[in-house]
Write a structure and sequence with these properties.
elongated, 354 residues, 24% helix, disordered C terminus, alpha+beta, seven-stranded mixed β-sheet, 6 helices
Length: 354
């Protein structure tokens, strides 16, 4: 049995160092304390990251078939409501008179504070997970198809309208431009498509989630001005703690045109405000995840082991530099070496088997 133990001992990958060969120094003590503090900080951060999880972004194919969704609008146009025509048209040639469901309220035009006026709306970040979870209060407009206070110089347009989930556009034009609207044709001098947008979103109406067009506006002195907003809509799902929020985020580009009167006393194009949209076949899933516990323990052991190895290399490098700069006697000045005498080597406590 003893011979077997002796043979197994030869495979020891963790050789031990006798205390009599150990050298302690104040520098080594400080290095150990610093290493322990760094290790505790890393442990604190890793445990916090494990308990808090991480936010994962994944693009997948949108496998949900939706025939339509809502277009939510809340904006102010610097023209009387009776001069405006609203319509939805898509690539299937399906037209929807948005004026039947939208609300038109006559009011005075004004520029709200903190709105971005005449700025490019190209930079917009996807709302983060925590913000969406805090602000996901679904709402609906209480009225639909109402016409109030007609005759005012500006028009407050708000409401939700259903649109087919295909490429299309929602537009606001002057009556008589682009469509035959009875006998009423708005004169050129009455056109003014200065506007501010408080809400423009797709899908379920979440008024506290910001979108690229929210709180923006355009001011113009041109009568034949056309504002064209091109949006690409991506279904975005937020998942956290079992709660799932379906939204539709969109990217935005703009094009502005000013038309002229041709020799036939007509405009070269249709002035107005155009919101052109198309839906992407992909879906963005933003979810909170947590790594498995076994993976967390393995990662923690790897980090702590790497910290000890790096600390050992740095300490030896520091000792080598001190030896080169000040000599070996300087480095041994504050060291303590445990030494044993001749009798100690023969004592049963220090006796080793060979």
């Amino acid at each position: 049995m003893e011979s077997f133990t002796t043979k197994v001992r030869t495979f020891d990958a963790f050789p031990k160092v006798d205390a009599e060969h150990t050298v302690r120094s104040s520098r080594g003590g400080f290095s150990t304390l610093i290493t322990i503090i760094c290790g505790l900080l890393i442990l604190w951060v890793e445990i916090g990251g494990f308990l808090g999880g991480y936010v994962d972004h994944q693009f997948t194919i949108d496998d949900k078939i939706k025939s339509d969704l809502s277009l939510n609008i809340d904006m102010l146009v610097a023209m009387p409501c009776e001069f405006l025509h609203t319509n939805v048209m898509d690539i299937t040639d399906d037209r929807f008179l948005a004026g039947e469901l939208l609300n038109f309220e006559g009011t005075n035009f004004f520029l709200p504070q903190h709105f971005e006026i005449n700025s490019k709306n190209s930079d917009h970040d996807t709302p983060d997970l925590d913000h969406v979870m805090q602000e996901t209060m679904r709402a609906e407009f209480r009225v639909a198809g109402a016409h109030m206070n007609e005759g005012a110089p500006a028009c407050h347009i708000f409401g939700s309208i259903p649109v087919n989930q295909v490429k299309g556009d929602f537009h606001i034009t002057g009556k008589g431009f682009g469509y035959s609207d009875g006998r009423l044709v708005v004169p050129y001098e009455a056109l003014n498509f200065t506007h501010v947008i408080s809400e423009f979103s797709y899908g379920d109406f979440y008024p506290f989630i910001n979108n690229p067009l929210d709180f923006t506006g355009k001011v113009t002195e041109q009568k034949l001005q056309a504002y064209k907003y091109y949006s690409k809509v991506v279904p975005t799902v937020y998942e956290k703690l079992g709660m799932i929020i379906d939204t539709n985020q969109y990217s935005l580009t703009e094009q502005h045109n000013v038309y002229k009167i041709n020799r036939y006393n007509r405009a070269d194009g249709i002035p107005g405000i155009f919101f052109k949209y198309e839906f992407e076949p992909i879906k963005l899933v933003i979810s909170e995840k947590r790594i498995p516990f076994i993976q967390f323990v393995s990662r923690l052991a790897t980090i702590i082991g790497g910290l000890l190895i790096v600390a050992g290399y740095l300490y030896r490098l520091y000792e080598r530099l001190l030896t080169i700069l000040f000599g070996k006697r300087y480095t041994e000045r504050d060291t303590e070496k445990l030494r044993g005498g001749l009798l100690d080597r023969d004592s049963p406590k220090n006796k080793r088997d060979y």
